[in-house]
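Session log. Operator J.P. requested a structure for one protein chain; no other inputs attached. Running the standard single-chain path with C-alpha coordinate output.
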Amino acid sequence: MTLSVVHAQGSNRAMGRTYGEAFASGIREALHFYDRALGRSAAVGDLSPYIDAARAAAPLIAEEIEGIGEGAGISLEEAWWLNCIEEVSDIEACTTMVVGRWLLHAEQWYAGHAAVGVVIAHPDSGPEFLSPTCAGFLPAVGFNSSGFAQGIDSLTASDERTGVPRVVVSRLALGARGIQGAITNACIPGRAGGYAHTLVSGTDSVVVETSASTEHVIRGHRAHTNHYLAAPPPGTPPPSRGSRARLSRAIELLGDAPPADIEHCTALLADHDGEPEAICLHEQGDAASATVFGMVCDVVSGQVIVSDGPPCRGVWEEFSLAPSEAGLVG
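Structure written below.
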Protein backbone atom coordinates (compact mmCIF):
# COMPACT_ATOMS: atom_id res chain seq x y z
CA MET A 1 0.00 0.00 0.00
CA THR A 2 1.20 3.51 -0.84
CA LEU A 3 0.39 6.39 1.46
CA SER A 4 -2.10 8.90 0.09
CA VAL A 5 -0.51 12.34 -0.07
CA VAL A 6 -2.17 15.71 -0.55
CA HIS A 7 -0.68 19.18 -1.01
CA ALA A 8 -3.10 21.63 0.58
CA GLN A 9 -2.63 25.35 0.15
CA GLY A 10 -4.42 28.66 0.60
CA SER A 11 -6.72 29.65 3.43
CA ASN A 12 -7.54 27.24 6.25
CA ARG A 13 -10.94 26.48 4.74
CA ALA A 14 -9.38 25.91 1.32
CA MET A 15 -6.74 23.59 2.80
CA GLY A 16 -9.46 21.68 4.61
CA ARG A 17 -11.49 21.28 1.41
CA THR A 18 -8.47 19.98 -0.51
CA TYR A 19 -7.71 17.51 2.28
CA GLY A 20 -11.34 16.40 2.49
CA GLU A 21 -11.60 15.85 -1.26
CA ALA A 22 -8.35 13.86 -1.40
CA PHE A 23 -9.24 11.57 1.52
CA ALA A 24 -13.03 11.46 1.05
CA SER A 25 -13.26 7.67 0.78
CA GLY A 26 -11.15 7.09 3.90
CA ILE A 27 -13.09 9.72 5.83
CA ARG A 28 -16.41 8.08 5.03
CA GLU A 29 -14.99 4.69 5.99
CA ALA A 30 -13.85 6.18 9.31
CA LEU A 31 -17.34 7.53 9.99
CA HIS A 32 -18.86 4.11 9.39
CA PHE A 33 -16.31 2.56 11.75
CA TYR A 34 -17.01 5.03 14.58
CA ASP A 35 -20.76 4.60 14.08
CA ARG A 36 -20.28 0.91 14.82
CA ALA A 37 -17.62 1.20 17.51
CA LEU A 38 -18.76 4.23 19.49
CA GLY A 39 -22.35 4.98 18.51
CA ARG A 40 -22.15 8.44 16.97
CA SER A 41 -25.87 9.19 17.34
CA ALA A 42 -25.59 9.00 21.12
CA ALA A 43 -22.89 11.67 21.33
CA VAL A 44 -23.25 14.23 18.55
CA GLY A 45 -25.91 16.18 20.39
CA ASP A 46 -23.37 17.00 23.08
CA LEU A 47 -20.79 18.54 20.72
CA SER A 48 -22.21 22.06 20.32
CA PRO A 49 -20.36 23.51 23.35
CA TYR A 50 -17.06 22.10 22.04
CA ILE A 51 -17.70 23.57 18.60
CA ASP A 52 -18.55 26.96 20.08
CA ALA A 53 -15.38 26.91 22.18
CA ALA A 54 -13.25 26.03 19.15
CA ARG A 55 -14.79 28.75 17.00
CA ALA A 56 -14.17 31.34 19.72
CA ALA A 57 -10.57 30.33 20.49
CA ALA A 58 -9.35 29.26 17.04
CA PRO A 59 -11.75 30.41 14.29
CA LEU A 60 -9.38 29.60 11.42
CA ILE A 61 -8.86 26.04 12.65
CA ALA A 62 -12.63 25.67 13.02
CA GLU A 63 -12.91 26.73 9.36
CA GLU A 64 -10.36 24.05 8.46
CA ILE A 65 -12.50 21.35 10.07
CA GLU A 66 -15.55 22.62 8.22
CA GLY A 67 -13.55 22.67 4.99
CA ILE A 68 -12.69 18.99 5.53
CA GLY A 69 -16.41 18.25 5.79
CA GLU A 70 -17.21 20.22 2.63
CA GLY A 71 -14.44 18.55 0.64
CA ALA A 72 -15.33 15.05 1.79
CA GLY A 73 -19.04 15.53 1.11
CA ILE A 74 -20.05 14.87 4.71
CA SER A 75 -22.05 17.08 7.04
CA LEU A 76 -20.36 19.66 9.24
CA GLU A 77 -21.74 17.72 12.21
CA GLU A 78 -19.88 14.62 11.00
CA ALA A 79 -16.65 16.57 10.46
CA TRP A 80 -16.82 17.94 14.00
CA TRP A 81 -17.73 14.50 15.38
CA LEU A 82 -14.50 13.08 13.94
CA ASN A 83 -12.47 15.88 15.45
CA CYS A 84 -14.09 15.58 18.88
CA ILE A 85 -13.54 11.82 19.19
CA GLU A 86 -11.17 12.21 22.12
CA GLU A 87 -13.73 14.28 24.00
CA VAL A 88 -16.31 11.47 23.91
CA SER A 89 -14.18 8.29 23.90
CA ASP A 90 -11.44 6.84 26.06
CA ILE A 91 -8.37 5.34 24.40
CA GLU A 92 -4.68 5.63 25.23
CA ALA A 93 -2.81 6.85 22.21
CA CYS A 94 0.81 7.00 21.12
CA THR A 95 4.46 6.80 22.13
CA THR A 96 7.01 9.52 21.34
CA MET A 97 10.81 9.45 21.66
CA VAL A 98 13.56 12.01 21.12
CA VAL A 99 17.14 11.27 20.07
CA GLY A 100 19.28 14.27 19.16
CA ARG A 101 17.98 15.65 15.87
CA TRP A 102 15.23 13.00 15.55
CA LEU A 103 11.69 12.82 16.84
CA LEU A 104 10.18 9.32 16.71
CA HIS A 105 6.45 8.79 16.99
CA ALA A 106 4.32 5.62 17.08
CA GLU A 107 0.69 6.52 16.34
CA GLN A 108 -1.41 4.22 18.50
CA TRP A 109 -5.12 4.40 17.75
CA TYR A 110 -8.21 2.30 16.95
CA ALA A 111 -7.19 -0.50 14.60
CA GLY A 112 -10.42 0.00 12.63
CA HIS A 113 -9.49 3.52 11.52
CA ALA A 114 -7.16 2.22 8.85
CA ALA A 115 -7.08 5.08 6.33
CA VAL A 116 -3.88 7.11 6.81
CA GLY A 117 -2.59 9.94 4.66
CA VAL A 118 0.07 12.63 4.61
CA VAL A 119 -0.87 16.31 4.45
CA ILE A 120 1.74 18.72 3.10
CA ALA A 121 0.34 22.14 3.95
CA HIS A 122 1.19 25.46 2.36
CA PRO A 123 -0.90 27.99 4.31
CA ASP A 124 -1.49 31.54 3.13
CA SER A 125 -0.40 32.67 6.57
CA GLY A 126 2.10 30.70 8.62
CA PRO A 127 4.86 28.19 7.98
CA GLU A 128 4.50 25.10 5.84
CA PHE A 129 4.16 21.77 7.63
CA LEU A 130 4.04 18.06 6.87
CA SER A 131 1.80 15.74 8.87
CA PRO A 132 0.73 12.08 8.68
CA THR A 133 -2.78 11.63 10.06
CA CYS A 134 -5.72 9.26 10.23
CA ALA A 135 -8.14 10.42 7.53
CA GLY A 136 -10.61 13.04 8.74
CA PHE A 137 -8.58 14.28 11.70
CA LEU A 138 -6.84 17.63 11.78
CA PRO A 139 -3.06 17.37 11.32
CA ALA A 140 -1.43 17.04 14.75
CA VAL A 141 2.00 15.37 14.54
CA GLY A 142 4.72 16.19 12.06
CA PHE A 143 7.37 18.67 10.97
CA ASN A 144 7.04 22.44 10.66
CA SER A 145 9.30 24.33 8.23
CA SER A 146 10.20 26.86 10.90
CA GLY A 147 12.41 24.08 12.22
CA PHE A 148 10.59 21.93 14.78
CA ALA A 149 8.72 18.64 15.00
CA GLN A 150 5.78 17.69 17.21
CA GLY A 151 4.67 14.37 18.67
CA ILE A 152 1.36 14.09 20.54
CA ASP A 153 0.49 11.59 23.29
CA SER A 154 -2.93 11.38 24.91
CA LEU A 155 -3.40 12.18 28.59
CA THR A 156 -6.37 11.80 30.93
CA ALA A 157 -6.91 14.04 33.97
CA SER A 158 -9.55 14.74 36.59
CA ASP A 159 -10.25 18.31 35.37
CA GLU A 160 -11.59 17.47 31.89
CA ARG A 161 -14.49 19.69 30.88
CA THR A 162 -16.33 21.20 27.95
CA GLY A 163 -13.90 23.38 26.02
CA VAL A 164 -11.59 23.60 23.01
CA PRO A 165 -11.16 20.07 21.57
CA ARG A 166 -7.70 18.60 21.96
CA VAL A 167 -7.04 18.23 18.23
CA VAL A 168 -7.70 21.93 17.69
CA VAL A 169 -4.98 22.72 20.23
CA SER A 170 -2.49 20.29 18.67
CA ARG A 171 -3.17 21.73 15.19
CA LEU A 172 -2.52 25.24 16.53
CA ALA A 173 0.79 24.09 17.99
CA LEU A 174 1.85 22.27 14.79
CA GLY A 175 1.22 25.39 12.70
CA ALA A 176 3.07 27.82 14.99
CA ARG A 177 5.98 30.03 14.01
CA GLY A 178 8.81 28.26 15.80
CA ILE A 179 9.04 26.05 18.86
CA GLN A 180 8.32 28.87 21.32
CA GLY A 181 5.11 29.65 19.46
CA ALA A 182 4.18 25.96 19.62
CA ILE A 183 4.68 25.97 23.40
CA THR A 184 2.45 29.03 23.70
CA ASN A 185 -0.26 27.54 21.47
CA ALA A 186 -0.24 24.24 23.37
CA CYS A 187 -1.18 26.21 26.49
CA ILE A 188 -4.10 28.25 25.16
CA PRO A 189 -6.81 28.69 27.80
CA GLY A 190 -10.20 27.02 27.69
CA ARG A 191 -8.96 23.52 26.75
CA ALA A 192 -11.33 20.58 27.13
CA GLY A 193 -8.48 18.33 28.19
CA GLY A 194 -4.78 17.79 27.82
CA TYR A 195 -2.03 16.27 25.73
CA ALA A 196 1.70 15.72 25.99
CA HIS A 197 3.24 17.80 23.21
CA THR A 198 6.82 16.65 22.56
CA LEU A 199 8.52 19.47 20.67
CA VAL A 200 12.00 19.24 19.15
CA SER A 201 14.06 21.77 17.21
CA GLY A 202 17.74 21.94 16.32
CA THR A 203 18.37 23.84 19.54
CA ASP A 204 15.69 22.72 22.01
CA SER A 205 13.63 19.74 23.16
CA VAL A 206 10.68 20.02 25.54
CA VAL A 207 7.57 18.18 26.63
CA VAL A 208 4.55 20.38 27.29
CA GLU A 209 2.13 18.44 29.48
CA THR A 210 -1.33 19.97 29.69
CA SER A 211 -4.65 19.17 31.27
CA ALA A 212 -7.77 21.28 30.92
CA SER A 213 -6.48 23.76 33.49
CA THR A 214 -2.76 23.05 34.04
CA GLU A 215 0.42 23.10 32.00
CA HIS A 216 4.01 22.05 32.68
CA VAL A 217 7.03 22.56 30.42
CA ILE A 218 9.50 19.73 31.05
CA ARG A 219 13.06 19.38 29.79
CA GLY A 220 15.34 16.38 29.96
CA HIS A 221 12.85 13.60 29.12
CA ARG A 222 13.59 11.50 26.03
CA ALA A 223 10.33 9.53 25.90
CA HIS A 224 6.67 9.98 26.68
CA THR A 225 3.56 7.80 26.59
CA ASN A 226 0.12 8.32 28.19
CA HIS A 227 0.62 9.43 31.76
CA TYR A 228 1.84 12.58 33.43
CA LEU A 229 5.52 12.94 34.31
CA ALA A 230 4.84 16.20 36.17
CA ALA A 231 2.23 16.47 38.90
CA PRO A 232 -1.27 15.96 37.42
CA PRO A 233 -4.42 17.58 38.82
CA PRO A 234 -5.58 15.95 42.08
CA GLY A 235 -7.81 12.96 41.51
CA THR A 236 -6.25 11.99 38.17
CA PRO A 237 -6.22 8.20 37.67
CA PRO A 238 -2.86 6.47 38.15
CA PRO A 239 -0.83 5.47 35.08
CA SER A 240 -1.99 2.35 33.28
CA ARG A 241 0.27 -0.70 33.09
CA GLY A 242 0.39 -0.33 29.31
CA SER A 243 1.56 3.27 29.39
CA ARG A 244 4.19 2.49 32.03
CA ALA A 245 5.41 -0.52 30.04
CA ARG A 246 5.81 1.42 26.80
CA LEU A 247 7.62 4.28 28.55
CA SER A 248 10.00 1.87 30.28
CA ARG A 249 10.72 0.04 27.03
CA ALA A 250 11.30 3.28 25.11
CA ILE A 251 13.81 4.49 27.70
CA GLU A 252 15.52 1.08 27.65
CA LEU A 253 15.81 1.12 23.85
CA LEU A 254 17.25 4.63 23.76
CA GLY A 255 19.76 3.75 26.47
CA ASP A 256 20.89 0.41 25.05
CA ALA A 257 21.39 1.40 21.42
CA PRO A 258 20.80 5.07 20.56
CA PRO A 259 20.07 5.24 16.83
CA ALA A 260 22.83 6.51 14.58
CA ASP A 261 20.63 7.29 11.59
CA ILE A 262 17.00 7.71 10.57
CA GLU A 263 16.70 4.08 9.43
CA HIS A 264 17.75 2.85 12.87
CA CYS A 265 15.00 5.02 14.33
CA THR A 266 12.43 2.97 12.44
CA ALA A 267 13.64 -0.21 14.15
CA LEU A 268 12.90 1.31 17.56
CA LEU A 269 9.32 2.09 16.48
CA ALA A 270 8.92 -1.51 15.26
CA ASP A 271 9.81 -2.94 18.68
CA HIS A 272 7.45 -5.63 20.04
CA ASP A 273 8.98 -6.25 23.46
CA GLY A 274 7.38 -5.11 26.69
CA GLU A 275 4.37 -6.25 28.65
CA PRO A 276 1.45 -5.67 28.68
CA GLU A 277 1.86 -3.37 25.67
CA ALA A 278 4.52 -2.89 23.01
CA ILE A 279 5.50 0.27 21.14
CA CYS A 280 4.46 -1.49 17.93
CA LEU A 281 1.11 -2.80 19.16
CA HIS A 282 -1.15 -5.33 17.43
CA GLU A 283 -4.26 -5.98 19.48
CA GLN A 284 -7.01 -7.91 17.73
CA GLY A 285 -10.30 -6.42 16.51
CA ASP A 286 -11.31 -3.16 14.84
CA ALA A 287 -12.08 -1.49 18.16
CA ALA A 288 -8.78 -2.64 19.68
CA SER A 289 -5.74 -0.43 20.08
CA ALA A 290 -3.00 -0.71 17.46
CA THR A 291 0.00 1.20 16.13
CA VAL A 292 -1.39 2.44 12.82
CA PHE A 293 1.69 4.30 11.54
CA GLY A 294 5.18 5.36 12.52
CA MET A 295 6.91 8.68 11.88
CA VAL A 296 10.51 9.87 12.18
CA CYS A 297 11.40 13.56 11.71
CA ASP A 298 14.93 14.91 11.23
CA VAL A 299 14.53 18.49 12.44
CA VAL A 300 17.87 19.60 10.94
CA SER A 301 17.41 18.35 7.37
CA GLY A 302 13.61 18.39 7.20
CA GLN A 303 13.52 14.71 6.20
CA VAL A 304 10.39 12.88 7.39
CA ILE A 305 9.67 9.18 6.94
CA VAL A 306 6.28 7.60 7.53
CA SER A 307 5.15 3.96 7.49
CA ASP A 308 1.98 3.05 5.60
CA GLY A 309 0.83 0.85 8.48
CA PRO A 310 2.42 -0.66 11.60
CA PRO A 311 6.13 0.22 11.75
CA CYS A 312 7.15 -3.46 11.76
CA ARG A 313 5.58 -4.30 8.41
CA GLY A 314 4.56 -1.05 6.72
CA VAL A 315 6.56 0.37 3.86
CA TRP A 316 8.40 3.50 4.94
CA GLU A 317 8.07 6.44 2.56
CA GLU A 318 10.34 9.47 2.59
CA PHE A 319 9.24 13.11 2.42
CA SER A 320 11.11 16.36 2.79
CA LEU A 321 10.23 19.89 3.81
CA ALA A 322 13.14 22.32 3.86
CA PRO A 323 13.55 24.05 7.22
CA SER A 324 13.79 27.82 7.14
CA GLU A 325 17.02 29.47 8.23
CA ALA A 326 15.18 31.19 11.06
CA GLY A 327 14.00 27.87 12.43
CA LEU A 328 17.49 26.38 12.41
CA VAL A 329 18.92 29.09 14.60
CA GLY A 330 16.10 28.72 17.11
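Operator note: The two ends are 37 Å apart (CA to CA).
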